[in-house]
Amino acid sequence: MPTLALDPQDIARLESMSVRARVIVEGAFAGLHQNPHAGASIEFAEHKEYAPGDDIRRIDWKAVGRVDRYYLKRFEDETEMRTFLVLDASASMGYGRRGPSKLTYGSYLAAALAYLLAQQGDPAGLLLFDDRTRQYLPPRTRGGHIRDLLIALEAVTPAGRTEPGRALAHVAEMADRRSLIVLFTDLLDAPADLADRLRQVRSRGNDVVVFQILDPDEVELPYDEVTAFEAMEPDDARRLLVDPRDLAASFRRESLALRERWRQICVEARVEYQFATTVEPPAEVLRAFLFARQRARR
Amino acid sequence: MHFVAPSLLLGLLAAALPALIHRIGRRRARPIRFAAMELLLRAEREVSARRRLRDVLLLIVRTGLAMALPLAFARPFVEVKSDLPAVTGRSQSAVVVLDDSASMRRRGHDGTPFEVARARARAVIDHLSPDSEVALVLASEGATAPVAELSSDRARVLLALDAVPCSARRADFAAALRRATQILTGSPHGDRLIYAVTDLQATGWQEVSLPPAAAGGPELVILDVSGGAPWENRAIVGLAAEPAPEEGAQGIAVVAEIANFAAEPVHALGVTLALDGVEVARGFVDVPAHGHARKRFVHTIAGGGAHEADAVIDHDGFPLDDRRACLVEASRGLRVLIVDGDPRTVRTEDEVFFLEAALRAGGSGFSVITTLADDLGGRDLASFGAIFLANVNRPTPAVAAALVRYVEAGGGLFISVGDHIDTDAWNQELKKILPQPLGLKRTAAASPGAHPEGETVDLRPAERLAPIDRRHPLLSAFPAQGDGLSSARFFQFMLLTPLPDAPGRRVVLRYESGAPALVEAEIGRGRVLLLTTTVDREWTDLPIRPGFLPLVQEAARYLAGAPSGEATSAIAVGQKREIGLDADDRRIEIVRPNGDSRWLSPASHAGEARARRLVVFTETDEPGFYRVRAARGDGSVSDRPDAAFVVNLDVRESDPARLPDDKRPDRVATPALAGPAPQRRLELWHALGAAAIVLVLLESLLTLRFRRGRFKP
């Protein structure tokens, strides 16, 4: 069985974001040996349209009578959950030397999740931010909503400084009932109050997932000649002329320490933490995320 | 500083290259906009100190390398003033006299004086002009010259100089300078110089005389390597063993004489005595400044034979004279049996009165027992180290046989004659052990000659003794003129029947008339001494002469094979040692203190029978115990403990006194010795080349290390 877990560079060659989202989702479910349209999601669907392979005992016959379409029953422990996809579109997310930028990669993941949610009839919203909210699409389930969301993701460009705390605060205001908030960011220049903000959002009953997305250069620092490094975000004049080979070992350690710090912060705040580099197939990242969700539910 | 090729110094501009390359490299750095600046800056902070250190080190090393190479190629040199005399630079014939005496082996701040002297001698030889000739002579007594003729082969002379070890002999500059003068005699050069490189120890410069330079003699230049500072020294200058009767028959006392040559007294100086290599006693002694002290150790020796006694004091800067050795013989003890052949009721008229008194004299250590001839048969003769038969009438056959056995087994027998002697019986019964058959009694006819004032004069005609031969161990303690013996008068004596020369027999003392007075014979393993006069005053006044006491005491020791101090068993370093061969000995092996051995055979060309019975050992270069073994006629090899000997340092080498300036033979003003100090060119490019190699290695090492490590956290 051929795998559909394409590399990010292959995905970039696909013509539109909707195709990319579909390929990623199919790739993720190919690994699961399940039909992504078979409605295995138990979390996002309030009602889910029947697809071949679904358990027919779960068909909601009342709904069949009402709308003449086959929907599966919702589980008792499930409640309706709206999803906010929060994507960091600051200038630093635009780094990508040998593949897609972190922003592009984040948009792939967000698009795939939005596509999956739309397939299940779950409302998904999108918030693009830098140091302010750049664009906000509230969670909806109407037909054209997913198209608007994918267009917004395809059109986003990196700019400005990052303020993930402010974006989270914005989302928390919008989420008037229990919601799933998925944050895509690199956490490189995240302010210290982000941890407090995560705790606050989580304390309101929201389910929070943080995707830390880094370029491989930000993990290994594989440069091999004297380089003048310059900061990417506006108003940041930091510059460093150095032979990166001298710093590689120390940089790896610092990078690992950063990831471990955020992982620990998330554990303490009961926030789910996912890490990905922009060279990993997004389908595999998505699959790992879904697995983690399933395990958490059990 | 000067340069052979100064134009090559332009290459020093290359020293700027490393810094320049560094700066260009930084300018050409590619700019990259990077998101993880915070991580980057943190990493930089962590390694910045070490990175800067590395950069500075590499910059220094590379700049140094860039400077060292052109500097080395420019051949820099400096001219330094030489500390050698001005005359060394002239064309000349020179003899370097190197002081290799024992005192040059003491420890100093810059190594031993000998090492300094050798370096100075090398500097002199190096600095001589190319057309000069040079020879090398050693100053120690009896040393052979390493280069005994003038040579222009400088490398050969330097090689010989490097091979010279420092001896343990005494310095003898008188002989060394004579030798140097002799070498220079046939030199074609106008300038003839002797360079004496020495510590100027005064004892080595006695009796030095040189022909004056005006009379064509060589000029003497003394290079003093002592630094002018006096050295303090303590030494054992004497070691003697003597019987210690208070400790029994096997008791000995070893007396060490310690000298302090320093201006300060020494308190509680440790002295250790070892016997046969085992430490048996340790004590302490105070020695006054410029004075002597004695330390006496008493010990009981277990077993007979020769024992090695070794005394050591706490070491100072000259350890060679901090130890001294002697041999202790404890063969048969020192029990002496006197057989009185003419006892008298008046004690002073008794035949052995004077003999007994002399042997019992304080400090002799003899255990003297007197018996009558008739009682001799019941005695265990083997328990005595020496037996004196004084005017014994005629020994019974049993006694005669016992005496023969006693002597052949190694005993010592002293026979003195008198009116009671039955010459026929003696010649018949004791023929085997008599050195010569007894003959007629002779009464002196000569005038007694002059008498010292106040002496009791016996006007009978008398003979005197001929000058004595001090080479005999019995007589070595007497002055050359035989004081103490020469005044003795002999009114009567017994003639001996002449015999052909025989090995082991010799006349020790003669009368002026030529008749033998004291004859020695080696019989089997023992010895017999025959005195042809009496030991009382009946035939001679010898017993009342000063020489009588030491004569009989030494005779008793000699016969018993007992020690009489260092003199009989010890010699100074460099002295030769004569070793007599026993009847069955074919060759002699001498084992030196370091374990090396030499086989010696008696000289085959010697005409005299006695010469064939001796070997002469001359390689007494190191202090210590020299053991002797003999190869017998039957092919066996056995020890000869009786011939073992000790070599000690010449005590004159312990005296640190310097030769006073007014007695230095080089202090005569000589125009040839004046002049500016010579300049010496010191090439620096070797050092710079070596530095460049080290810098290349260092640069490679640093680069490799930093590339591998890359500042691992």
Question: Could you list some keywords that capture this structure?
Answer:
heterodimer; A: 298 residues; alpha/beta; Rossmann fold; 6-stranded mixed beta sheet; two-stranded antiparallel sheet; 10 helices; 10 strands; 42% helix; globular; B: 713 residues; Immunoglobulin-like; 4 domains; 7-stranded mixed beta sheet; 11 helices; 33 strands; 29% strand
Q: How many H/I helices of chain A?
A: 10
* Span of the ends, CA to CA of chain B: 48 Å
User: Beta fraction of the residues of chain B?
Assistant: 25-35%
Helix content bin of chain B? 10-25%
CATH superfamily of the largest domain in chain B: Class I glutamine amidotransferase (GATase) domain
Q: How many E-type strands of chain B?
A: 33
Rg calc of chain B: 38 Å
Dominant shape of chain B: elongated
The rounded distance between the terminal residues' Cα atoms of chain A is 29 Å
C-alpha geometry of chain A: globular
Walk across the major sheet of chain B and give the strand order: 17-16-18-19-24-23-22
Arithmetic mean of pLDDT of chain A: 84
What ranges of chain B have pLDDT less than 50 throughout 5 or more consecutive residues? 563-567, 605-611, 669-674
Oligomer, anyone? Answer: heterodimer
CATH class group of the largest domain in chain B: Alpha Beta
The class by helix and strand makeup of chain A works out as alpha/beta
CATH superfamily caption of chain A? von Willebrand factor, type A domain
Known CATH architecture of chain A: 3-Layer(aba) Sandwich
Mean pLDDT of chain B: 84
The largest pleated sheet of chain A is described as: 6 strands, mixed
